[in-house]
Amino acid sequence: MLMSSRYLVNGSPRCCMFCGEPFRPRDGDIEFWRTSAGQHFCSEFCADDAEEAQFRKRRAAAATHPGLGAGSPHL
Ligand SMILES: [Zn+2]
What is the pTM of this model? Predict the structure, then answer.
């Protein structure tokens, strides 16, 4: 099996998980943006957008379920 990139291992994502674009090769290696959470994006912009979307989702969930917010009201 020929591997041109050290990043192209079995199971590793090859597409941006935010916009779905495939990662672009540069200098023979596939380049992608990896967050501390282990998520892969095609650029830091997608990483930022995804983070913001997740943050909004979390806030929306906290608003819908107040008990899941900061702390428990039943202490
Ligand atoms: Zn992207």
Answer: 0.60
